[in-house]
């Protein structure tokens, strides 16, 4: 049986007495787009740095591209591409000069570098921008260039740490088109993100919270199996006042804003949602709040993530 390109077992990292990553176990198959989700400080970047051979684990093990991250970190580094959250290219160089620089870093000879540069410029849509100084590019174009430089040596696995942070929605969509085009060619993609719409595009997901993996699976599997309550969506003319009234209601597990809408998670027995909806409507109307709409909805990944965090906190996961 072929070993997955990324495999970790009980991976743990301590900083003094602080547990940054707590016994993470995961595997990522060839050509997958694996989304690694979690709030800031959850341990996403620390996990990625260990998997990239940049940070030694305190315990546990992991193999990336067939190499052990603890004993063969240099082999890991030469087999992967890594795009950090912060823009890591040279702003005073042109697009072409940045590509040349990273090609030389990865040891490409002149003929190979020339061919790969042409392929990278075409892949990223940077045609006509070769002689533009990088600092003058928009954030979206800078990220495209950073992606191109990180795959110039044709790595088997690409790690992207919050690659679209601060990028406008149109540029984010175009960037994800690039990610999928690379995955379709067989490259394995390991992407950290806090954008739930991006998570929907991943083939599989891992949710991390306080250093622990709290859920994993395809987006559909997670939606089907990890939501413990029924979600009621409420549209009113006074959402702030409505939220204060709904929160104390019996059987309400979580009540939060989704834009101007309210999502209320009820733990009432299945089949009683209609009664709960009626009770909410009556309560709001009695308090002079106009109700535009109340209905149950399928859980979004964001709903599930909020629910999982709440469960972890109740079980003492929050330290």
Write structural notes for this entry:
The chain has 319 residues and is α/β, with parallel strands linked by helices. It folds into two domains: 6-223, P-loop containing nucleotide triphosphate hydrolases (Rossmann fold, 3-Layer(aba) Sandwich); 228-298, 2-Layer Sandwich (Alpha-Beta Plaits). The protein is 36% helix and 28% strand. Strands 6-7-8-3-9-10 form a six-stranded mixed sheet, sandwiched between helices. A four-stranded antiparallel sheet has the order 2-1-4-5, covered by helices on one side. Helix 6 (169-184) links the parallel strand 7 (157-161) and strand 8 (188-193). The mean pLDDT is 90.
Secondary-structure map with pairings?
Blueprint: E1 6-15, E2 18-28, E3 33-37, H1 44-51, E4 59-64, E5 67-68, H2 73-79, E6 80-83, H3 95-105, H4 110-124, H5 139-150, E7 157-161, H6 169-184, E8 188-193, H7 196-199, E9 204-209, E10 212-217, H8 219-225, E11 230-236, H9 239-246, E12 252-258, E13 261-266, H10 273-286, E14 291-297, H11 301-314
Parallel strand pairs: 3-8, 3-9, 6-7, 7-8
Antiparallel strand pairs: 1-2, 1-4, 4-5, 9-10, 11-13, 11-14, 12-13
């Amino acid at each position: 049986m072929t070993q997955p390109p990324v495999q970790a077992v009980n991976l743990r990292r301590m900083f003094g007495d602080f547990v940054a990553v707590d016994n993470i176990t995961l595997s990522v198959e060839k050509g997958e787009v694996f989304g690694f989700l979690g709030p800031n400080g959850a341990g996403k970047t620390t996990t990625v740095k260990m998997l990239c051979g940049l940070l030694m684990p305190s315990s546990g093990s992991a193999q990336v591209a067939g190499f052990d991250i603890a004993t063969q970190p240099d082999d890991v580094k030469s087999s992967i591409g890594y795009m950090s959250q912060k823009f890591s290219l040279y702003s005073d160089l042109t697009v072409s000069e940045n590509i040349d620089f990273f090609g030389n870093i990865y040891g490409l000879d002149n003929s190979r570098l020339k061919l790969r540069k042409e392929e990278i410029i075409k892949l990223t849509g940077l045609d006509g921008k070769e002689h533009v100084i990088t600092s003058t590019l928009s954030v979206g174009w800078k990220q495209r260039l950073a992606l191109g430089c990180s795959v110039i040596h044709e790595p088997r696995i690409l790690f992207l740490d919050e690659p679209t942070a601060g990028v406008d929605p149109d540029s984010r969509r175009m960037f994800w088109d690039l990610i999928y085009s690379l995955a379709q060619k067989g490259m394995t993609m390991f992407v950290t993100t806090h954008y739930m719409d991006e998570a929907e595009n991943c083939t599989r997901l891992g949710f991390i919270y306080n250093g622990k993996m709290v859920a994993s699976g395809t987006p559909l599997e997670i939606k089907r199996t990890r939501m413990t309550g029924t979600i009621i969506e409420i549209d009113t003319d006074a959402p702030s006042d409505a939220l204060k009234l709904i929160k104390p209601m019996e059987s309400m597990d979580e009540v939060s804003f989704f834009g101007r809408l309210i999502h209320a998670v009820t733990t009432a027995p299945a089949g009683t949602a209609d009664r709960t909806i009626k009770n909410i409507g009556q309560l709001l109307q009695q308090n002079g709040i106009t109700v535009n709409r109340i209905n149950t909805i399928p859980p979004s990944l964001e709903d599930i993530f909020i629910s999982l965090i709440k469960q972890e906190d109740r079980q003492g996961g929050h330290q």
